[in-house]
Amino acid sequence: MKAIYALTDILTLALKAGLLAHQSGAGTHRTSLIIQRTARALGAVQVEVIISSTNIGATIEREHERETGFRKAPHMGVNFSLLTSLDGWLFALEQGQLDADAAHSALDLIAQAKGHYPRSVVTLFVGLSCGAFAALFGGDTAAILITTLGASVGMAVRFQLVLQHFKPFVFASVASFVALLCTGLLRDFTSTPDTAMAASVLFLIPGVPLINGASDLLNANYLNGIVRFTMSAVIVLGIAIGISLALRILGI
């Protein structure tokens, strides 16, 4: 016989799962589905979800019972490994492999899991990816190397600013300034300096917000789509300001 859980417990778990998804880079439609599927897997009959850029909420119903709850959802960045783990957790819940208590414990483990790679490794490979873009743009070997160096330094600065809770506009401006300045100071070592400097700031392009913004618009979540595009525009503006300041200092 299937266990019957209190609506309060169901709502708490559903919002907890939705909050993790929303803060890890899931689009509005995906976050809404996670909340709905979690609540229905535990016995809710009707689930209504509301999601904004910084809040999530849900109302769940079962016969004559009804519960409503909201959670603050500050932006935490992108974590695809967490989203993948969350999908596995949700599948196990729907298949009846987890009860409510086990689901809470499993969700806590997912939330507390550390990233697969340390920041130093991520920083290095972000730099290498920008170096690869320099190669695709036709840069010579020296351009690839100085792009890798500049982007790595810029990414390290970005990490530090994010850990200190600076807003996206600030870390985009400062990181792009540092990355371009480092690359520009070494431009005499390459015959394709423009390629190196252009590729050194590509790690800051807000790809996930742009993709999620387009997804929101296509799924008729127009307000959230506009919010994501606006946030992306602010980041791009920050990149432009950082680049402008670096170019002015370099005299280019």
From TrEMBL:
The chain crosses the membrane at residues 121-146, 166-186, 195-214, 226-250. Pfam families: ThrE (PF06738). It is a multi-pass membrane protein. Keywords: Cell membrane, Membrane, Transmembrane, Transmembrane helix. Signal peptide: none annotated. InterPro entries: ThrE-like_N, ThrE_Dicarb/AminoAcid_Exp. Residues 13-249 form the Threonine/serine exporter-like N-terminal domain. It is found in: Cell membrane. Belongs to the ThrE exporter (TC 2.A.79) family. This is Threonine/serine exporter family protein. It comes from Iodobacter violaceini.
